[in-house]
Amino acid sequence: MSALRHIAVIDIGKTNAKVALVDLATSSEVALRRMANAPVRQAPYPHHDVESLWTFILDSLAGLNCEQRIDAISITTHGATGALVDASGELVLPVLDYEFDGPNGLAADYDAIRPPFAETGTPRLPLGLNLGAQFFWQQKRFPAAFAHATAILMYPQYWALRLTGVAANEVTSLGCHTDLWNPWTAGFSSLVDRLDWRGLMAPVRPARNRLGPILPALAARTGLDARTPVFCGLHDSNASLLPHLLSDAPPFSVVSTGTWVVSMAVGGREIALDAARDTLVNVNALGDPLPSARFMGGREFSVLTEGQPETWSEDDIGAVLARKTLLLPSTQQGSGPFPHQAATWLDAESINDGQRFAAVSFYLALMTATCLDLIGADGPTTVEGPFARNQLFVGMLAASTGRAVVASEATTGTSIGAALLASDQVMAYGKGERIEPPTDRAWADYANAWRVAVEARG
Description:
alpha+beta; 16 helices; 20 strands; 2 domains; Nucleotidyltransferase, domain 5; 7-stranded mixed sheet; 20% strand
């Protein structure tokens, strides 16, 4: 085949699934397909609708290929998700939705065997957010089905298996608060051997590895060239980070926004991570440990702004800053830097829709600034994903950190990075607008008032 230029990126997010066509010559998205992604709330437990997603993926590949020939396929997905497959590649159990609370029922048993934070960099998280807890629960609750599994796959590599027939795993998903990976030794954690799962773990391949060409039947179904290569793929937040990891000089940080807001620090200050505040050690696409923190900011934004227009005026901003209308954490409890605090509004009587939108945007920025502080972030911060288009968010993030913020121009921050897996070049990457901290002291004063109010709650 000719040089790889147009890369189809399969991007399975928790809220939306996308297939983007990325032009590597311009480092830009030239086409995008999207569908809502909601779990199936049916027996045996809430699970991902992989067959609907599969139809969407194949239809999208076929449609995009009609517009522009696809040269290769890359994959990125949300974390905390994995698949149990048999020798034929079929699921032995549905792919569990990590927001299902079933694994909590075996929390005491799991806590007795999971490795410590010092070994894995993984904090103990609720529900199924620790992937090891999901597999542990499935093995205990469905032993007969689990016994038929011949491979444990991370979610990006499940889709790669369906595309190529090749079973693999990859470190960015293995290292995403799973309890399954030791980032310091670049190997499986003690939990894997304790539960006798090592033989089930598919081989670990680099994210850039070409697993193989698309299966012949899929080539016929989509119209793609039968030689179209499929790359191993990676976790979505690390896909957002990869372009910067390849081109930026440390120190810097990247904030990947979607259902989760994930902050990642490269070359920052040495700091002890606090497992109780949802900080963790991720693993980047080069295999290196990566101090990270996150909260469910996209979900919070959706809940807080549902049914309201996303409009505001300069007067609205001035009123919120002057009155110090504050939203204190957290509307989504159980994770994030304030996992046990309940959301509270201060001085919010009779605010209009524009003022509420401004206060919500400021709250999300201040939560992000807290996450960045917890991981020792330094240097400029690049925001990827939907929040990059929210001027109030990026302005308050600059004000509260005292550092420049770069608002990425990419519609889907993960797609450019995932597409780079198909390139051996370090591409010039269109950064977007650079926002310096506001000169108006009212912004920094607002951020300080928020911090004081949060601290006063204990």
